[in-house]
Amino acid sequence: MFNRWLRTVFGLALAAQMWPAHGEIVIDRTRIIYPAAAREVTVNLRNEADGPRLVQVWIDRGDPEALPELSDVPFTVSPPILRLEAGTAQGLRLAYHPAEEQANARPQESVYWLNVRGIRPTARTSNQLQFVFRTRIKLFLRPEALAGREVDAVQTLRWRLGGDSPVLRVHNPSAFHVTLSSVVLTLEGVEYPSEDPPMLLPRTTANLMLKGRSAPWQGSATLRFTTLDDHGVTREHSVSLAGPVTEDVAI
Q1: In terms of CB atoms within 10 Å, which end of the chain has fewer, N or C?
Q2: pLDDT tens digit string along 240-249?
Q3: Residue ranges in 68-135 assigned as alpha helix (H)
Q4: Which positions make up the signal peptide (predicted)?
């Protein structure tokens, strides 16, 4: 057991030295928007490695440890396994298959994850470790006729400073996901960043702990935050907050 673990650690360290961190199999986008009414959506892969790669593709519900063969999602990917020669590209076809319970669910976005795993082929007689690289990107399933637009969802966010604790609360009343990439609160000239800005699910509330603040909030503050749009482009926003407050504050 220990020897197996040692070989694995050594292999990972060697892989980090031999290949760039950005990965070898490159996806043509950082997120996928799937209109629920679409027959299929095409995603392109390109092999930027120095040799051929075996590629496995699957979709999961958010568990990075879920095995591909046990994936239970309303999507199919074609082809699920392929071989890409160095410098070549190939398209994947993603198809959505709505189930009855999903068709009757409350209209709002759902999020899944597309996994792309590249494997360097090795000879059967070789004793070398097999190096594996995986990329995961979000797949947003967007039903038709949702209230509002994705680009306007960030304007509906409602922020609240906790009066008894140094917590920043944000509520997303829209039917869309809002991905926060940075959050910084400025109070009395001091900046308090969030170390792990969340992706806000539709119609949910999240509490953000801000680094460096332990006392309850007093007085007014300025909130600066960034979000990622459908194309992965960073958008900047700001809002003034007063604390403590009893009502949510929208932009």
Answers
A1: N
A2: 987 554 445 5
A3: 100-103
A4: none
Contacts of 18 (CB under 8 A, 6+ apart): 131
Residue with tokens 């209109």: 35
Q: Yes or no: say if 175 and 109 are a contact pair by the CB < 8 Å rule.
A: yes
Dihedral sign of CA atoms 143, 145, 146, 152 in order = positive
CA 225 to the chain's CA centroid: 17
> Cα separation of 128 and 121, whole Å?
11
The runs of H, that is alpha helices, within the chain are 2-18, 100-103, 150-153
Residue 14 near residue 7, CB atoms below 8 Å: no
| Residue whose token pair is 């190096």 | 131
pLDDT in tens, 49-86: 999 999 999 999 999 999 999 889 999 999 999 999 99
Bond into 79 cis (ω within 30): yes
Neighbours of 19 (CB within 10 A): 15
Q: At 246, list the tokens.
A: 């009893």
